Amino acid sequence: VKRVGEMLEIKELQIEDAKELQKIRLQALIKYPYAFGASYEEESKWDVSVYEDRIRSKGMFYFGAFFDGMLVGMIALVVNVRPKIRHRAMVQAVYVDEMFQSRGIGGMLLVKAIEKACELKTIEQVELSVVTEQSAAFALYQKNGFEIYGKEYHAMKIGSRYYDEYLMVKLL
């Protein structure tokens, strides 16, 4: 795996990163519509304030991969706040710009999200779902200790096509 050198920084996103988050999120929704529950048509109508609110949200942590100051990858860790399920967190919104894929950036983002979950002390397991056809993403999750605990059939429908998802978990 080719690694990106010193010009790459993985960091938690701040309010001032909201515009870049919006831009990369919309790019992700266009390029991989089957990989996200939201659609480009839906989110393209949103104001940047929606992304500012997400970054500010108490139970949501966004991390970004910045190459030469440009946001090229993202991941979100969503923590459950309800008492019975607050020991669980969810990895969502994983995306790396096509020009930067296969360089280990997705793995670095995933590690950062898992580190944050561990740092919170209350999280005992991290969960995610991945479309069964996304073999590279699936391999990344397996390599980082996630295991399949189920399969959701017809998890998404785009037009007349259905997509199944693996449900995966990593116990901390």
Plain-language structure description:
By secondary structure, the protein is α+β, with helices and mostly antiparallel strands. It is 30% helix and 36% strand. It has helices spanning 18-31, 40-43, 48-56, 105-119, 135-143; strands spanning 8-12, 60-67, 70-79, 88-96, 125-131, 147-158, 161-171. It has a seven-stranded mixed β-sheet, with helices on both faces. A hairpin with an 8-residue loop joins strand 3 (70-79) and strand 4. It is globular, with a radius of gyration of 16 Å.
SS-based structural class?
Answer: alpha+beta
Helix count, per DSSP? 5
Shape: globular
Mean pLDDT value: 94
- The CA-CA distance between the termini, in Å, is 26 Å
Helices and strands, in N-to-C order?
A: EHHHEEEHEHEE
User: What oligomeric assembly is this protein in?
Assistant: single chain
Tally of strands: 7
- Report the β-strand fraction as a percent range: 35-45%
